[in-house]
């Protein structure tokens, strides 16, 4: 077995060395929970209950290629003293010994070596080893893959000798860390062979690479009835990583975690920097515990390690987790001032561990559950009448009789849920807060915290400095500003306060290939959230976002001292010139900030100059300086500005390596930074705050010279304010793409990949950043900087009156090189119009031949084959190749009806697939060749009806879009005409917002659930997932394959879009060559490639592109930009303005008349591409495209003749990597197993046979009575699909099929419910009730025998009625977060909701008969919400950005009364009854929430 472990380790090493695989990007999500007896009664039933709960969560896990090997599962419960007393001689009393399960190598020599190290370490501690015990296991209870890496499992028993009772648990923690460090120091090869699950006198962990239904059989101990405990934590893992690792299973020592810590790289770096100042009287020698974190551990393991450190330093468990994962406190009106002071104090000491997270943990006294600040994971609980508490990702995992339930609730966003086993109680919020505060007066500790604006006022600081215009102009040249920088970026932001938009993607050369040197910033690409965690909406959910920045922070998180509260607060990390000037002269403890000049002489060596700068900074820090200002203001004709990013990142990592980064602010005064990506990178690599002085000065320059800004000089300050405002908003958006809420957490998190930087450059200056194709060295970077400097000097000396033209945002003759030039467009359109292949070949040569002007990665690749060429007659025909073609998702709304239908016709004619995009599709098109074979499901869910879903050959889940990954979109009301409104099932004239995330996909297991939903509603359709190329996409693709997707699309960064922020078009995502190759490599390595088809898109233009895509692993090929070009697009990049001059991307009736495109031209173009591909295939000696797929080592090689010096260091070997020993196929060869044979819907369809077979003019009704459980997921989806196929999705009479149900519904209960079906459930359900509802009626009522008040308890989970279109829902209880999110037209009555209720709602009605959470109606543009506000507290929770209150009138009254009556009749609701019985008085308690634009339409009777 150890050989297998060694092989896996070697396999990972070889893969990361030679391929595009990066272990850092491995992710996991999970299902978890705990069961506890609040009265602290210890029973075997608790442990057995934990095992049962684990089995009930099995669907939230995953399996790799070996179906009997899961991703890991585990239990944590009380040390079973009675059990151990029978088998361990002379066992001391409970609490006087510690025990732990340890994973050992199976090779005897390695085992003995580590065992002796442990024994020696214990011998030198305060206590002693009592005995060892080999844990009995049943090896064949787990899968073959799990067996191949199975460790030897032993228990160590440590007897308390010299430790006091109070210190024993802490000393066991210290002992464990000593052992771990000693084993590591001894150079034992232990990475995956040795692991201490936990060493404790209180609790024990049993875990491993087991599935939930295997754990009891595998660990024979768990079968004993002598195992008693009052609690049991459980965890089931779903990992994107399929390298087997026993240690990665949860729980850890305290924690089980479901979610993702997005900021872990920064958190680990900051903890490393922090170690030098950590101290606590509770630790004799704290260095024994270092390193606290390790970048090789998972995010959960790292978080758990810091929890341990904090708890054993004397903090309560509640305090510790609140420090690390704080609530969104700054804008929360519900939090006490004392609690806000706690968060404020620790915000100056510790950045948040940020990301979607549900956590459960215990120190054996307290059982704690905690949600992230935005409530992005589910965490439900049920309390029974015998004081048994069940907490978990779902309800229903352990059957509980309804009459025994006394409370049904949820853990709220940011909240801490606590059971105290010693006090035998469940804490209320104020009691939790007391434990968090832990007796400290935090208001006193922060009394001297000051905002910089207040400090400037106190000092009467004035700053009215004006710059010489010639000096500004020369500086603009020296910092390589272009006309576009001023015209397209800075002036627009100064006018609007918004980042400018663009369209049609990016076809400019990558910076490493650009002939004119580019700024260093452009060599980086933003990473973004897709699948494993969600992006955030920074606009609609702004209350969880924060740019608050603090100077003079302290770092010892273990002690509470006033000095740590004396920070200087900035509202944003981007400062104006006045603030920078003030801070330069601000004294703290007798020291001003140390200003470091970051320029160098042209004759100096850049690297040597940087080394001097870093040493000067270190010397200043040694002298007591706490703030370093890196300034390039000295840049002039004799001094060259060092790239600010290089200086910041280099200094940041230099100080970390020298253990001096701690408590040091790095401020940047730079003329170089002007656009959002620049600021994001500077912060991401450690800058505390930035002053873009030249960008601000340029506004003054433009105003005074009447250049691009037609404004009075008195408006300069306001324009500068707008510019900074735009940058701040864009920083929030950039952070939110990765799911990060606070700038403190983003700082130093390095959420980027470098494209075109050498390993040596990255290692020294950008340590830890992924860079996979090599590129610039420090020397070639210096050359680039000096080339730009020389150009600037020449321009200054010549007196050039204009800045240079860059052509970065649209084609310019003298600008940057592009692929789609006007000449290329003209040729391909002419070729298609005249059906002239020779003209097409001229076009293809322009695009393919990059020998003189390199533009893309594939431009460096050339074909190679040892096979003899074959006759082209033997190559498969163009018709066979074209069947592999699809078009990219373009919605009706983003492009015109004429263009949309022409594309569908072309693809249907050739046997390919068009993709309708996210805007729905007119049902009339289902019946002819205008039908889009692929129907897309995007975050807005517009037009996603049951009819739409069953009329598809493929259902595609769009996780991200190449031109704007991690972002949503908005279709303004003026574009939503009657036809678009009807197709999207929304009200014409109402703005439509697509959220950044799918609100039913916050993790990989959520994606698996949506895939299951879709497969149920349309079993014949292929389910696919669209991902965007980024570092780590291969690992994500592995998770997506395990989630049962049948096709994965890898989309390139350069794809087009109707509208996107320019920073996203230019700086987010990667070329498809990288993403496709990585996905293919990792899927093969994990033996998952055979399960999925791989598709690629992103500015594919020629047959050569197609063949290279195939060789890198693609089986299918997507085209979007080029079909639009063939239809007439001339790349004016005006799509986002609705002013497309050729009628392709507009809804203007006048402009649409100019559309002249013919679908036949698309077919001609596709034939040309295919013919070119055939010619290449013939030359390579293959007759079928399938022979090329995934064979990069055989058919590609790198061109060795780069024209540019900087390109000579580029290395594409990782892209071409092929594991020659792999037996995994290169194409899809097997179907996914959805395990749908025995789902309950098949039974329902049989029971409703009479309905389906009856005359459609006289449909027979059916009543079905059933019991359901939480594993009955997607209940009703298959039934609804059958209704839609048989009758049409919206034709049956109400109650045609009535389902009377009892029990607890699983996830997606009633999903896509079709009209005519009534779901009548007595019980409760989990997340996504009524998602995509299309006419069905859902009734969920509390069982009469249950002992709790319905309007105070949870009856359904999160995202209920997400994307609902029609129908009704009546919930006799409280719903979780995001109730009615993106509701288009359903009517819903509920008795209370969580945060973000009615978010993005565009139609329908929501009647809330109780309390709401925060941020109600954010982004709500349509529909009406009626909120029963008896206590007059609702207004504080209402987001008034798009809605307001309206006066109650007769129309509103009648609607409210009608639906409240229905609610009472269906559910027997007590609160409904009370309201109806006192109607005249109670109706005044209803608040009417409506958007002004919808109100106008409603009052006209049009909604």
UniProtKB/TrEMBL annotation:
InterPro entries given in the database record: Aldolase_TIM (IPR013785), ET-N_metabolism_enzyme (IPR050711), GATase_2_dom (IPR017932), Glu_synth_asu_C (IPR002489), Glu_synth_asu_C_sf (IPR036485), Glu_synth_centr_N (IPR006982), Glu_synthdom (IPR002932), Ntn_hydrolases_N (IPR029055)
NCBIfam families, alphabetized: PRK11750.1
GO terms classed as biological process: ammonia assimilation cycle; glutamate biosynthetic process
PROSITE patterns: GATASE_TYPE_2
GO molecular function terms noted in the UniProt entry: 3 iron, 4 sulfur cluster binding; glutamate synthase activity; metal ion binding
Pathway assignment: Amino-acid biosynthesis
Record keyword Transmembrane present: no
Keyword annotations: 3Fe-4S, Amino-acid biosynthesis, FAD, Flavoprotein, FMN, Glutamate biosynthesis, Glutamine amidotransferase, Iron, Iron-sulfur, Metal-binding, Oxidoreductase
Protein name stated in the entry: Glutamate synthase
Naturally occurring in which organism (per UniProt): Leptotrichia shahii
Family stated for the protein in its record: Belongs to the glutamate synthase family.
Cofactor names: FAD; FMN; [3Fe-4S] cluster
Glutamine amidotransferase type-2 domain mapped to chain residues: 30-422
